[in-house]
Design brief:
By secondary structure, the chain is mainly α. It has helices spanning 25-111, 114-169.
Length: 170
């Protein structure tokens, strides 16, 4: 590199070189250019990796949201199952009442006296009406529980499919 003060260089490019030495500025420039190329390539790779990470993070976020919705469906299904169990218990209770009613009817029938039958007839009618009302309520609850169980089965099927897909993906 020549430094000039206007008219003549202060020293020539070959000054200061010993015999057999070469000018190394070209080699240094080549190394700098190679380093710049490597840095540029590395920056491109980092950018590419950032995009890939962002895309995967977005996909994972969508999966998390989907799984959250499915967990909520499962929770609802579990509540429906608990409700179905309550309905089953109520049905058992009504069944017991019907059995008691049948036993009372048999007892009255065996008693044979018309006075006994006439005295207990209003009681039987009230009990029968109450049992009929409870059966109607239970029927409606059972239908609701059945719908809930169907939703639970669908939600469980979806979760199983998602888990299988995640296993295949991972």
């Amino acid at each position: 590199v020549a430094i000039s003060s206007g008219t003549a260089p202060l020293w020539s490019e070959s000054e200061g070189l010993q015999e057999g030495e070469e000018d190394r500025s070209d080699g240094a420039c080549t190394e700098i250019d190679e380093l710049r190329d490597r840095i540029g390539h590395t920056c491109e790779q980092v950018g590419s990796l950032e995009q890939e990470v962002a895309a995967r993070a977005g996909a994972l976020q969508e999966q998390v949201l989907d799984l959250d919705a499915r967990v909520q469906e499962l929770e609802q299904g579990l509540q429906d199952m608990a409700h179905a169990e309550e309905v089953r218990q109520e049905v058992d209770h009504v069944g017991e009442q019907v059995l008691r009613f049948a036993l009372q009817r048999q007892r009255v029938a065996r008693g044979g006296g018309f006075g006994d039958v006439d005295d207990e007839t209003p009681l039987f009618r009230r009990q029968l009406e109450r049992v009929g009302e409870e059966l109607s309520e239970l029927w409606a609850k059972a239908e609701g529980a059945e719908c809930g169980l169907e939703r639970l089965a669908v939600a469980l099927g979806q979760v199983c499919e998602e888990v299988a897909g995640l296993r295949a993906w991972g």
